[in-house]
Specification:
Elements: H1 14-30, H2 41-47, H3 52-55, H4 60-63, E1 83-87, H5 93-102, E2 107-112, H6 115-128, E3 133-137, E4 150-156, H7 165-175, E5 176-185, H8 195-198, H9 201-204
Parallel strand pairs: 1-2, 1-4, 2-3, 4-5
Helix pairs in contact: 1-6
The structure holds S-adenosylmethionine.
Length: 206
């Protein structure tokens, strides 16, 4: 994928940022324990207000790989039959939560750049038995989803990692149906980064 233009940043090019994220999230897929400065897994999900009845229906190996920074469903619950896109689905935790909300008439598509994360997401889907999930390799900056497909786009702790925020937001609005919803939770910068951090590929993936 090419660098996305001069409209928003300086720093490593997109390929390098994506490669750093692939390395980091391959390690997280193997073992999420101790990889983050914030709480993860079941304790975090409970604290963030995920519904206990849904948590209890999701395989433990999927819940333990929840490394999101918030709960996008506090902004509104998906309705039965909806099409939901989970940008940066990781191990598939939010995708499974969405799968239970939308039910058999709905569909959830999880997209992630990391094949390692997608492998554990697909294994978790087999264990959980949800037939209404599909996981695709792809990038927030170029989503592998047709225009106007989604009733709801969710994203949890991912857009801060996107190499070009403008491209990622543009893609979200391209794939949403007219009147569709975008419910994202994320980390935001409150000040400019020093140049050494801005140019550090590992920091971009972290
Ligand atoms: C902090 S984890 C969050 C995973 C998941 N949303 C959750 O809540 O557990 C960030 C995820 O975003 C993925 N990711 C990072 N940059 C991405 C990009 N540009 N496009 C798609 N996925 C990306 C990583 O591979 C990783 O799985």
């Amino acid at each position: 994928m090419e660098n996305d233009g001069a409209n928003e940043r300086t720093g490593p090019d997109t390929e390098k940022i994506h490669a750093a994220s692939r390395r980091r999230y391959a390690a997280v897929a193997r073992n999420p324990a101790g990889q983050f400065s914030y709480p993860t897994g079941r304790d975090s999900a409970e604290r963030l207000g995920y519904r206990t009845d849904l948590l209890n229906r999701i395989p433990a190996d999927v819940v333990v790989r929840f490394v999101g920074v918030g709960n996008p469903f506090t902004l509104g619950e998906p309705e039965p039959g909806w099409s939901v896109l989970d940008v940066g689905c990781g191990g598939g935790f939010d995708s499974q939560v969405a799968g239970h909300y939308v039910g058999p008439a709905g569909l959830v598509c999880g997209v992630d750049l990391s094949e390692a994360m997608l492998t554990v997401a697909r294994e978790g889907q087999m264990v959980g038995g949800l037939a209404n999930l599909e996981f695709r390799q792809g990038y927030a900056e170029k989503l592998p989803v047709p225009s106007g497909w989604a009733d709801l786009v969710i994203s949890n702790g991912v857009l801060n990692l996107a190499s070009c925020k403008a491209a990622a937001f543009g893609e979200v609005f391209r794939v949403l149906k007219p009147g569709g919803r975008f419910q994202a939770v994320d980390l935001v910068l409150i000040a400019d980064l020093p140049p050494d951090l801005r140019n550090d590929e590992f920091a971009w993936s972290n």
